[in-house]
Records
---
Amino acid sequence: MKQKTSLWIIFWIALAGILFSGYLSFVELTTKTCPLGGCTNVLGFPACVYGLVMYCIVLIMAILGIKSKK
């Protein structure tokens, strides 16, 4: 598999992760209830917020890889 193809797959997976964890984060932060049931907090924030940040970083890295000239 080519590197660009792999980066595009990572891009789409990260985008799906951003949408899902973004939805969970939004609902939990605005309504103070967990949409899935047993959610946990880490250092005062819902765990889905950390997932959202991680997926954003992965998406940015995939975009940088796709745009590189190598």
---
Amino acid sequence: MTRPLRTLLVGAGQMAFGYGQDPKLLETFEYPSHASVLSKHSGYVWDAVVDIDRTAGERVAQHHGVKVFSSPGEIDSADGYDCVVLAIPPAARLDWLAALPNLKAVLVEKPLGNSLDEAERFASTCRERGIVVQVNLLRRFCSEMNALAAGLNWDLGDIQGATLVYGNGLRNNGTHMIDLVRQLLGEIAEIVPIGRSVASRGPLPGDVEATFALITSTGKPVFGMPVDFASYRENGLDLWGTRGRILLWQETMKMTRVPRIDSRTTTGAGELAVDHSETIATDLGRSLWRAYDDLADAVETGGAVLSPIESALATSRVVESVIAATQGGPH
């Protein structure tokens, strides 16, 4: 590109920096944090991190040799930033857009808001200012997920239905998995609540856990359920096709295909043979790098990004509708 984007990282938490310090995560994720990309990507000049917890910000600054600030008012030459990475909760994000008057690009974490109104205000502000927004829904940048979405489905056949699991909150990880359903199976036409939601123990205040069913626009059912991260982590999707089954597991870092064979118990029938399954590793660990690549290209060429804010808003509408439905509200 003509010149790299001068970039400010707002937030010094897990996604901004901490995941990049986890040796176990680094075994499978080449780029687990924003800092791990920004410190190496030639399309960006990263020169500062901001966090209201100055100690957290200083850890990042010392590790990567960047400046550290605690608030918008401390930033020198705020009008010189082209790009901001918003790795903070939604409530303060509009303040950062206001503080950086010449932004060309934003990379933002989900959820877009603590409510649909908040998400739409954020999107509207970016739209009015002509800012290119990439929403960090990682599976939008994963080769295997995009191949599945394009129909290169490892002989899965026609999808009959699916089961998704998520943990640590519906607005948190539930957003990722509902977005993956939209990516692979299309838009959601109907939401069916199953029981009532309960408070989540995840990182987002006010988040909930809920069990539900989604019906896609082509009539495919998707059953969604939370799992307790105190027992184990999982954000996964189990796709049932007419010629096989695909499990996206270990938070979609692994993909297992279970083929259909002639039944070993009933003449003239078929079965899904788990003992004949094949597992591959996906390239999810490089997805964050691709998100940055794609954003820089879009700024340079004027093209569309892979995870645009309008698509993320559609996912937010589904998430908020699930919450309303499982709390007894309209949907």
